[in-house]
Amino acid sequence: MTYSGLPPYPDQRTGMRRRRTRTPRWVVILIAVMASLLVLSPVALVVAFFYVSGKNHGDLRFPSQDVSISSCRKDAVTGGPVAEVRVTSQAKRPGSYTVSLAFRDLRGEDGGDSAGRRTVVLKDLAVGATVTREIAGPVPVRGRPQCVVADATFLSTELAEASKSAMP
User: Which helix (H) or strand (E) holds 52?
Assistant: First the structure.
């Protein structure tokens, strides 16, 4: 038996020379493109979502942007905190604001103790109207008071009337 007809590095199973196959270039390119699409598609969707949502909500206003506290002081008679709340309606239509205030007593070392909450409803404000109200806190304070807008909501008067008329 002569080994002169066999290649120098035979396959161990068959004794024949292994033929190396090359993957066609178009298959490699196709795999690279598909992998790129799989990776970049979610990124593109997130970017598109933020772009569209930014365009849709560009002029969105929150009711808390229309509410401010003009002054916060301690009442000399009752000893409780008194806040002067100012609401300037920047909404596109008339409506009612519900403003919740949180009062704190700043005498504590850890940032103060809670001195209660109060809620005020300012009904039927016209577009661009400004209303100022004084709100007294429920608990007397010994130190300097702090008044904070805890929450503000807006309900359009038009929407409220439409929902009442829709009810049987």
Answer: helix 25-56
Cα separation, 47 vs 152, whole angstroms: 31
Q: How far apart are CA 168 and CA 165, in angstroms?
A: 8
Q: pLDDT tens digits for 108-131?
A: 555 556 888 999 999 989 989 999
Tokens of 100: 């919740």
**Cα(34)–Cα(87) distance, integer angstroms:** 56
Q: What is the pLDDT, as a whole number, of residue 82? A: 94
Q: pTM for the full model?
A: 0.59
Whether residue 148 contacts residue 104, with contact meaning beta carbons closer than 8 Å, is answered with: yes
DSSP per-residue letters across 121-133: EEEEEPTT-EEEE
Please state, in angstroms and as integers, the Cα–Cα distance from residue 42 to each residue in 18, 46, 48, following that order: 43, 6, 10
Contact at 8 Å (CB) between 103 and 42? no
d(CA 152, CA 62): 8
Residue whose structure tokens are 């008044």: 147
